[in-house]
Amino acid sequence: MKLSDYAKQNSISYRTAYRHWKAGIIKGKQLPTGTIVIYDNYEVEKNFVIRVILYARVSSSENKSNLDSQLERLKNYSNAKGYIIKKEIKEIGSGLNDNRKQLLNILKRDDWDKIIVEHKDRFSRFGINFIKVLLEKNGKTVEIINETDSDKEDLMQDFISIITSFCARLYGLRRSKRKTEKIIKELNNEQSI
């Protein structure tokens, strides 16, 4: 029902009803048109409660101080949207790392509806659309607060991250190949004895 109808039904002024809504005494949502719709209790419990997990991430320990401010912005956003915050996660790790323990734990849980992140690269550097599709198939979503296009600096950071990742894999493969060759050589030496 509209906020004005709620005010009439409860014999209060629209201004008082608005203050109740702002204070969270009554639950509702504001439509893009500006109209405030008040839920009745059954609808709130059944249809309109959105459980969220806040996910803040930085790449290195040097940026650790940014985690708290990032999480604070996520909290303010979620509260303004009327979401119920189930968990707040802070993680330090590369956006290219596909083995981030905190994020993997979130994805294994089933007690949330949305993951809220500040920027898409805080969630994942690449493949975010694939992740979104898989989550949506399970009735979950990722909500990105700031969906601005990457500027030149972000693109350069992505490029450097890709090169670093592939170099680490390449050198790791070479090291692995040398170890394998050494083991084979030792086995051949043992057989010839």
| Helical segment count | 8
Q: Mind telling me the C-alpha Rg?
A: 25 Å
Number of domains: 3
The overall average pLDDT, rounded, is 79
What is the strand tally?
Answer: 6
**Helix fraction by DSSP (H/I, runs of at least 4):** 40-55%
Shape: elongated
Strand order of the largest sheet: 4-3-5-6
- CATH hierarchy: architecture of the largest domain: 3-Layer(aba) Sandwich
Largest sheet: 4 strands, parallel
Secondary structure layout:
Layout: H1 3-9, H2 14-23, E1 28-30, E2 36-38, H3 41-48, E3 51-58, H4 64-81, E4 84-92, H5 101-108, E5 114-117, H6 120-123, H7 128-137, E6 141-144, H8 152-192
Helix pairs in contact: 1-2
Question: What does this entry look like structurally?
Answer:
By secondary structure, the protein is an alpha/beta fold. The chain has three domains: 3-45, no CATH class; 50-144, Rossmann fold, CATH 3.40.50.1390; 152-193. 55% of the residues lie in helices and 16% in strands. The protein has eight helices and six strands. The protein has helices spanning 3-9, 14-23, 41-48, 64-81, 101-108, 120-123, 128-137, 152-192; strands spanning 28-30, 36-38, 51-58, 84-92, 114-117, 141-144. The strands form two sheets. It has a four-stranded parallel sheet with strand order 4-3-5-6, sandwiched between helices. Strands 1-2 form a two-stranded antiparallel ribbon. Helix 4 (64-81) links the parallel strand 3 (51-58) and strand 4. Helix 1 crosses helix 2 (14-23). Residues 42-47 have low confidence and may be disordered.
